[in-house]
Specification:
Two copies of one chain form a homodimer. Chain A contains two helices and five strands. The relative contact order of chain A is 0.20. Chain A is an alpha+beta fold and 145 residues long. Chain A has a five-stranded antiparallel beta sheet, covered by helices on one side. In chain A, helix 1 runs antiparallel to helix 2. At the A-B interface, helix 1 and strand 4 of A face helix 1 and strand 4 of B.
């Protein structure tokens, strides 16, 4: 079966090296939603060597840091599931108390009061700053390795 | 508001130190489902120092390793959400191709063919081995720190 993550990505790449990449999903409900994708087709985090797991998580946490500083969500959600695409990738999702699914998982039930929810669309300036900070923080996190 | 994770846990503690603990949730649909819970009431992973984040992830990956060896799920799901309980905790969930929600998130829609699904209840011997391996692997992972 073809793996979607082994194909050229359709998403904007915010940072990448030969180990992993950070992409912006342009999710309609969660505009700053990012994914950190391993380049190699590997299924589980524990299929990686401990130092590779640590490297992956440093990238995830660098994205989280940039997201908190620029997007300022009420909560960060991190997840590595891969049931449909068993190729290591981390979801980094900015959640707001008035978003479509809060406090449920964004994979769960939408709220009943959907008309009262907001999509937190960052300004163009914020998105530019977000991208710049992701590049800087990932670079910095890996340099300190 | 009272934080559930700041109360004495109702779950069986499989391993703990003064930083975090591993508990077995005895989830009806996912019997080997574990959670790694930070002891301190801290909201986000990036509120922790980098070496504390690394320590937390080593514990998560030690649980994943034990789970793969003993429970042998088709996929591991890892997640730190905390929308309802903003106190750092990691879900470590063994997923099977015939479980109640696969390939959806276990927070998502159950499958339509629910009658065809299985609950993968480990044997008593497997659960004992699972608990022993969690203790051993967490201890080992942190000793190599």
């Amino acid at each position: 079966m073809t793996c979607d993550l082994c194909q050229p990505t359709l998403h904007e790449i915010l940072w990448q090296d030969d180990f992993c990449r950070v992409v912006l999903l342009n999710d309609a409900d969660y505009p700053a939603y990012c994914r950190v994708e391993l380049i190699a087709h590997i299924k589980e985090m524990t299929d990686l060597a401990p130092e590779q797991r640590a490297r992956m998580m440093k990238v995830v946490f660098a994205v989280e840091t940039a997201m908190r500083e620029v997007i300022a969500p009420d909560k960060i959600n991190l997840a590595s599931l891969g049931n449909k695409t068993p190729h290591v990738h981390w979801h980094v999702i900015p959640r707001f108390a008035d978003d479509k699914h809060f406090p449920n998982s964004h994979w769960g039930e939408p709220r009943n009061d959907a008309l009262q929810t907001s999509i937190h669309e960052p300004s163009r300036a914020s998105i530019l700053m977000f991208k710049d900070k992701i590049k800087a923080y990932v670079t910095c996190a890996l340099a300190n390795h």
